[in-house]
Fold:
Amino acid sequence: MSVLLSSSEVRETYEDGLTRLRKQFEASGNGIAVVQGRSRLVDQVIGLCYEHLVEQRSVPADCVAVIALGGYGRNTLFPHSDVDLLFLFKDAKQEAAHKDALSRVYLDLWDLKIRASATARTVAECGRFDRENMEFTVSTLDSRFLLGDRELFERVRAKTLPGLLRKSGQRLLMSVAESARSRHHKFANTIYHLEPNVKEAPGGLRDYNLACWLALVSRFRHANSWPDDGSLFEPRLQFELNSAVEFLFSLRCFLHYRHRRDDNLLSWEAQDAAAASGIGVGRQDMETAQWMRVYFRHARLVAGAAIQLLEELPVKKASFTTTLSRWRAHKSNTDMSIVAGAIVLPKAYPTNEYPSLLNVFVRMARQGLRLGIDAQRAIIQVIPQLNAAEAEQSLWPYLRRILTSRHAANALRAMRDCGLLDAVIPEFKLIDALVIRDFFHRYTVDEHSFLTIETLHTLRAATAEWKKRFAEILGELERPELLFLSLLLHDVGKGMEGENHVTASLTTARQVLIRLGLPPEEREAVEFLIQNHLEMSAVMRRDVFEPKVVGAFADKVGTPEVLKMLTLLTYGDISSVNPEAMTEWKAENLWHVYVATSNFLNRHVDEERVHSTLDGQSLARFGALPPSLMKDLESFLDGLPQRYLRTYGTEQVLKHLELASRLWQQPVQLVLAPHRNLYELTVVTRDKPFLFATLAGALSAWGMEIVKANAFSNSKGTVIDCFYFKDRFRTLDLNPSEHDRIKRDISEVVRGDRSLEHLIRARSGFKSTNRARTKIETKITIDDESSTHSTLLEVVAQDRPGLLYRMAEALAELKCNIEIALIDTEGEMALDVFYLTSNGAKLPQTLQDSVREALQEKLRGDGQT
Structure:
């Protein structure tokens, strides 16, 4: 039974205190007052619990030291933070005698809806470093005495922990650093997320605590004594960090109150609310975009301090070279120095001269160096005094060297953080820390631009074969600096009003290029890349084996050099949207577009259809087959589009032929197999109305998310349909026996032995598991010009279960034949393209109108417009 369960007075006092703190926060926005106030309230509750135990003689008064750990130890309990306690005993005998009785303390805390955890340790155990539980040792660095035997606490603080740090301090630092780097990696090593986590993400409160831990341990190991409070950092940095932490404290309190739980995600909705409430900015109403820039400024400072301390590890006695470098850095000369991987500028360094200033960042880009905090501060101070006209005359030679160097992105980030990038290219200020809300992008616009450059540079070290191909064409570029400059400027228009950011980016970039002094032909190349930076993504949603599509794109590109640059720009742009955006499958599609267009530019274009007599290239591919099998193969391939042979390898084609040869035994041939991170379903059967819609509907009924589909038929009416899908509910992953069942269900529906409606009713796959976060407007485009033999239908719509089935059903009802289906999904947006025919020809205008009306009605009836 808990100690205070019957005491309504304690409960009321605690809850009244919480209510008072919230009202004070709503009036003032002071997060520090909240976290300190809640810490005091919990102190009082624990004190009452412990005193009650002592009064009941459940435990002696001096048997234990009750100690606050972690955030509670720092007196920073946020509204819904956990409470961590340590019951410190003299020895194991005392622990065994009193540990169970003391557990009633944190049970009382749970009764008050305080999430608490307690650990019991002896003094000796606190002096042992366990790499598997280094969090405990770290939490003791923030320990605070609450109740009981203070002498035990002082013994640990004065002797046990110092002994541990002397013996295992290096291992502790390495473990903390490894954990921090792993955490940073989960967030792509950037603070510039559209919806950042204000606790865990780089630049969040966890990074501030990290900086404090690293500084504390480092200073202790250097001086062999605990540093004074407030002296972990040099005074100016401490002042700046205090301002950042005050902002983050207020913000995290706001999120806890808003979400009513320990939820630290700064979502779009929370950003709007925080900006409107003036959180962290004196309760002044502020536009969301501007308020987010304030957030990123504070996060940038916190992340910078943490990263600098991380990079200075391992902490050890300074070598002669390091000592000499530090001495030289403080001498009054004009040479920059490198200390622990960071650039240090002497006081006399000519930061007010553009060539000298830009050389700092050239060196960063080439050598992968960091900019030291003092150097960054010195550059920030001089930026307002620089001559803009001088920058225009001298910038491009230095910017070219930066852009083409391996670590260009980090140098550009440092230029942005100092304000130098905005000074030399004022237009870039439009997208500095700019949050654009959509369903797919994960980073701010400027960070996305830097990531595109970083992505291409990392290709040089790629090990995956599909990445090496792009690395090869990067190495073949004659003027790679034009590609990287295009990436830097390709999205600057997103900071301007208007719907078309491409046009705005082009207009803005044109002025930058003129000021940089690029020759006309180089300006034209950069302008072309910016103007067409979405073009290749659009072509990827067309039939890239259709000569007319490839020919039109090749005519627009013009030369192999421009094609290479546009391919790489597209690769970098897609890859930098979010970590999952550039899949191997999507890279394969992009490569197909590149190869097909390159072949066209070199006058090597495939024929439209495979004929009964194979051409020389196909004969070479299948030349080893016996004559009888070759005859069967030619008959099977007759009438299939060339795209079929380009899509499938020799073994796959022969497998399809084998399946087709069995149709007289079983009219529906099915093969289900894993395909990378998806499943592949191959169906070979005779063509019939509603076939594609039936297959899509059956898969959707089973809860499968179709991400790609190919539909082919030969001159004899044999259909080869391939679907690639995700197993949303892991039905097939967890139940191998279900593989045969799904094939049986699909086969029965295709044969007509079972109705699709019956299967849909029997399964729950059409039910959506997640509410759409972003509403996608339905757009239907019908194009009669892109293909020589089909009418192209493109549908952009909100992705949801059964979408492909509903669209295919509508097309089948109008007797439209799907020649090719290209299915793609980006976030919550479905991008589906169909090549349609009717009676072997393009769709007449009346049928096109009917298709548009039917799809609009079908999608509207599904709850979308």
